[in-house]
């Protein structure tokens, strides 16, 4: 088991007749362009582990598009020196961003503090998908804190914090996650989002409109059921093909 490390990576997408992707990486954050507008995030040494301080900066120019995925789920584990793993993402979006990594799984005894800030310029748009899962199968899971902040044309649009702890009877009780292992979200900024709410076996979900062009979906339940709802809602957004807002 290794000790905690600090690392920062970045992706810049430049528009043009054929857009260009520039990136820098630092172990254990590895980036792999897999298309003209797609980049995959790879964890080069497992984890993150407790004590890690990792950050990623995204810059999507006007008229450019970035579809950022991950090669596999992020499995957060305790580090040799204990402590919290920290993961920070900051995105400046004048074009179009689709952020949809695989779920973050926080194992027993681990702790993750995740912070994601999206600044969308007028005429830009973003679809941001995040899923946190408490533990592998058969585990109760560690501690997770996820902060999601979004602005539109320089104006505050959303500040949302999710806090989970499989070992805390309050956070995992009826007033918290009610025993659910997964929380997923879809944030839409700069274009129309979804609407409605529902309850299916193993999952509850609902869309909330934002005070600006966009909406946010929250889904709580079993990992497989949450993933299925997020996928269905994303397919609906894709089929809607709504252009970026310009007002």
From TrEMBL:
One Pfam entry name: UreD
Signal peptide residues on this chain, from the entry's feature table: none
Membrane-crossing segments per the record: none
Protein name: Urease accessory protein UreD
InterPro entries in UniProt: UreD
Organism field: Pseudonocardia thermophila
Keywords: Chaperone, Cytoplasm, Nickel insertion
One GO CC term on file: cytoplasm
Assembly notes: UreD, UreF and UreG form a complex that acts as a GTP-hydrolysis-dependent molecular chaperone, activating the urease apoprotein by helping to assemble the nickel containing metallocenter of UreC. The UreE protein probably delivers the nickel.
Subcellular location: Cytoplasm
Major location (coarse): cytoplasm
Molecular-function annotations in GO: nickel cation binding
Family, similarity comment: Belongs to the UreD family.
Keyword hit for Cytoplasm: yes
Stated role: Required for maturation of urease via the functional incorporation of the urease nickel metallocenter.
Coiled-coil annotated residue ranges, if any: none
